[in-house]
Amino acid sequence: MQNNSRFTLSDLAKLAGVSTSTASRALRGNPIIKQQTRERIQALALEHNFSLNAAASRLRTQRTHVIAVILNLTEHTEQSINDPFLLKVVGDLNQALNERNYELLLSNSFMAKDDWTQYFIKSSRADGLIVVGQAKSDTKMIAAAEAGAPIVVWGDPHASAKYTVVGSENRLGAKQATEHLIKLGHTRPVFLGDLEHAEMGERYKGYCDALAAHNIPLDDSLVMSTDLTYQAGYDCINQSVKTNGLNFDGIFACSDMVALGAMKALKERYVNIPVDVAIIGFDDIPMAEMSHPALSSIKQNTKLAAEIMVTELLRQLNGEPGQSHAVGIELKIRHSSDPTRT
Amino acid sequence: MQNNSRFTLSDLAKLAGVSTSTASRALRGNPIIKQQTRERIQALALEHNFSLNAAASRLRTQRTHVIAVILNLTEHTEQSINDPFLLKVVGDLNQALNERNYELLLSNSFMAKDDWTQYFIKSSRADGLIVVGQAKSDTKMIAAAEAGAPIVVWGDPHASAKYTVVGSENRLGAKQATEHLIKLGHTRPVFLGDLEHAEMGERYKGYCDALAAHNIPLDDSLVMSTDLTYQAGYDCINQSVKTNGLNFDGIFACSDMVALGAMKALKERYVNIPVDVAIIGFDDIPMAEMSHPALSSIKQNTKLAAEIMVTELLRQLNGEPGQSHAVGIELKIRHSSDPTRT
DNA sequence: TTGAAAGCGATACCAA
DNA sequence: TTGGTATCGCTTTCAA
Lengths: 342, 342
Known about the structure:
Two copies of one chain form a homodimer. The first copy, chain A, is built from 14 helices and twelve strands.
């Protein structure tokens, strides 16, 4: 501990022989201040390791330059908190925010108090909210939006939402994935996912679209609802095969984690993947290409999505209205669905 | 936007017919205030959705109740930013901090300005720093510690550090991993990792310990230095086998990501795992048990580590001296090293 | 182009 | 047990 007595703007100003007003303006590069003065003060600040007190500045300006990112998880803690996909989104958001000179306050829905607007916005902890994951209920998001809080949510962009949503073309992605299986001759594909979840509901529609496009009747026994975890995917497929035998020849899973769980269950039973059962997931997490066989998937463009989310949020901070966006997806074909690929 | 005019403590006080001093004390549950008054004011606050202005409070108290968590990444951005292990640590830190009523400001070493103390501490953005990843150079950490900033680093706890470090028993873990391979008859194990990295250096020592304990001479050609990524692990083993043939019968990899890359390279060459080559990694990421064969690994107790890091940091905030801690590890035996396991 | 001074909203000392 | 009041450090209006 060397320099304990705080070195404030007024100290700096005194040192430079100017008023705090001038010093403040100079540091912010206000052109109203003579360039020479500006440079002198900036140099002095650098030399003395000076930095403005953010708390004071925030109090005065009523702006924090902080965005709260809330990981909106479901009850089973262990689930999504380890989902590499969600964490990737957080990483990308961090990057996008920093580039615009905003900081990221990380929270999750277990920790954050119930009233987000009150806790983050009214209290001057953050200027806006980004929620990752629509989960099954969006009452908190709606409440925040209605209270006037700037908010952007990662979720299903086609939801008739009362708040701004950015997300992938879920329905299209699911359709492409399912069609990919069908075209390779797998006409009895399973839908594996969580129907109560908005994004997954869209993916289910895409699955149905693909079946319809190929005149394949929907077989309810192939629609399996399950949590979005590795373990749940494993259990679900394991149970299904045990009970009904191998009455399907493909799997479209709503997340790669689920797909990998399903794959494990099949491998344990020596099912030939992709010949007897072709599998495709969603998200394209890094693990997808590492699995054996490498997992086909629908890649979500999280980097682009993160940038859009931040842009939208800053728009709202400027008083402009928000607008939802759907981000394109990309079919990644690998060996788990197509034997000609690696 | 409904309630735009800010509702401040003084408004609340007026409403309650008391002074701001009393209101402030009541809200914080100060027992000096008559219980009846306290409850009345708290109820009023709840009713009016009141929350204290954090910026003002921080300015006045000179405490932010915020901890900056810095992801300290190496140059190759793409690398660690996707490493599930590091992200898990962040998740656990978030939990541990929230439990103690602290918030987490997320940064990474690319974004954070150079002088951490100045940017985070002097500027009243955070009360302390937690750095995840020692990387290859620790000059910034040393600078922060010398400037008197409360700081705790995730890294190698046996480093002769000038700052508080919390980390796993790297040497012991590596020794156990390597011995596990040896005991199963794999007497020519490769060491796969990045020797410039402090934690990995310790793991290398552990690897040597195990060899020495079994009177196996160290063979330099089996020590392979590589980046800690999936791709690097793949390339390294691929290249090695191509050049020298299969001149090893086991792999101890410094991270699961590297191990999985190596595994993929071997599988492509139809090497029998674990019979011909047994593999074990480090970290025990979720993917480890999903891979095929499931990957043996050394589990790091990140949850406990996160709690210790937070405890240590709060200690420093109280002016007490910091102390480094080594957290125990656990050998997880799976099929990639032991054919009798699943 | 610069300076004086008011005030952002809480906390805590001192008095009562 | 409560209240008055001086700060915390910065930004910004108004005046010079």
